Amino acid sequence: MSVLKQLDQIIKFAQQNNHRQLLVLSGSESWGQQQAEQVFCHISALTPLWVGDRKTQEAAVQTKKVFGWLGRELDLIVFNAHSGFDVDAFGAVSGSLRAGSVMILLTPELDSWSDYNDPEHTRLCVHPYSELPYSSRYLQRLASLINDNPDSILFKESDTQITRPIALTVAPESIIEETVQPYRTVEQQQAVEALIRVAKGHRRRPLVLTADRGRGKSAALGIAAAQLLQDGLQRIVVTAPSIASAEVLFRHAGSLLVNSSLNSSLNSSLNNSINKEPSDGKITAGLIEWQGASIQFLAPDELAQSIEPVVCDLMLVDEAAAIPVSILSTLLQRYSRIAFASTIHGYEGTGRGFSVKFKKVLDQVTPKWRALHIHQPVRWAENDPLEAFVFQALLLNAEPEILSTATITDLSRLELEKLNRTQLAENEPLLKQIFGLLVLAHYKTRPFDLRHLLDGPNIEVFSLQLEGVVVATALLAREGGIEDDLTEAVWLGKRRVKGHLLPQSLSNHAGFPEAILFKGYRVIRIAVHPDIQGRGVGSYFLDRLTDHARKQQLDFIGSSFGASEELVRFWSRSDFKPVRMGLVREASSGSYSLMVIKSLSNGFDDLLYEVRERFIDSLLLQLPDNLQALDAELVGSILSDCKGTSVTLSKRDRMDLESFVHSDRLYESCQLAIKKLLLINLSRQVAGVHEEHKVLIAKVLQNQGWQELARRSGLAGRKQIVSQLKIDVRQLLAALG
Description:
The chain is an alpha/beta fold and about 725 residues long. Helices cover about 40% and strands about 15% of the residues.
């Protein structure tokens, strides 16, 4: 039975239920494309989209470009998985399909899909692999989900009849509450009203707006922004993980302002950007100017790093889950009128982790904050079969098990297990626990991370369990052991092999070419159940992983992460040493990357000692230059326990220090002795106790200017800073004895 003979019935059921329908065409690519082209000709779709390769000359976009289509409403989507099943793109574009429409997924034969040479495997493979050395566990799981999904329609090229008969039923008619333009649902209208209250009501009462995809959350931000400009607000600042993440907001705000009675003053560039087709994936420049007022996009790290708060009437933070909580906290403290919006189960970032972590900050800083959740979809009815499939396939709604007890008194009861990934892919409850913990732990966990977890050829998955329940999990990557004949090429930067972050960085950036010969683990992610955090479970887990690495006769175990005092303290407790600091802030997190390593073999001991000495010398050299903006407390934590720095105080140094404290000698005349004293003190401390000496660190090690330091520290000027420096030096001298 042909697809076309069943197509009208499929669409009819979708329209009657106000749902979207998934149609899977499993077979050769030529057959699948032929069937899909017939559908294109049969359906008079107003806004269809073909994703992936297309043999005809008709329009199609590659998966990397689909994000430019977000916020638009599509009538038909063909997703050609023969071109590669990009899980992030699939999850993102599915939310653009409106009710009564069909998504067509072209796949190889389901029974052999796991052995298909998917182009996406190039993102997973690391040196020396050029392709997966085994069948894809993720694709095998996906094929099983499709076969077992009763709500999708499946056609196979190898079958003469439809594989799964159409037995859909019309859902009971739901009550649709009437709304007026521009609102799509009553809940969306309520969200806009709540956003307006943030701008016009009492100060310091932020709103946290959450929703799953397709609920009109970002549109509500745009509608509210446009209405507030019309009501007299002069400047609204928008921030998001990227300007692309805020495109829906700007599109809705711009459309309302263009159509308003005063649109004559709206600049022409806005009109062009609102009306243009996003065929190239580009978006607006992030600025709307209207009647002397504006809506402007500014990056999160730019806002967090600015010395003075940006002047604005309202701050809107979209996709807040994909922004580090540290930056969100800074924005919350700086702006008295601010609203945060976040997708709870989305392709970009993870709202569950955001809601768990950020709620604590909100309770402390602004206890009168308000939460609002949008339940009702704007483009389709509830219980949509396509949404249910996407959630399951991408584990967007994965959450860890609820613990029966929040108290762990005996860490030895926790059992370490290295998980068999083939068995994990077939154990959906366990997989949800593992991935759910990762979602809670890291703000940037995405659907691709699930595929990486199951299929990465150098990945190993570990769990820590209490009575069969996963309380912590970790992803480790095997690195190093690169061929000796690549040593010079990697060291000189002429060759970069894929993967192997730690050994390659030690070779090329730190200047130790022999580093690539050593073998070790890199901890990609480590996550502890939120109910038992702060009880030593994470450190215990890390120590057990280290013991496992030793038994594997590896040379090192390490990690790389966006540096914060909390993380530096965590890794320091297990004796991991900082070995490299990034010189540029990461745009997504606003943090500098930090690498830490622990030696596990005698051969690596000597190398690590040299690496540490060189790292400290390099860090001290870079602090007054590229790292001048690094948090002073963090500098102190990184330099803690910096053994190997042979710094001593001479008689003349002590004379300088005493005279600086007790007389009017200039800081510059005693600067060398003060620096020595500070370094000696830091080498004797543990990470995370440097709040009291942050002014001293910022001036002595980072050479921050007097005026800038005064602004950052809240002191009046040079005279007050010098007084603080004298207090600090006196304390350090007393501690030194």
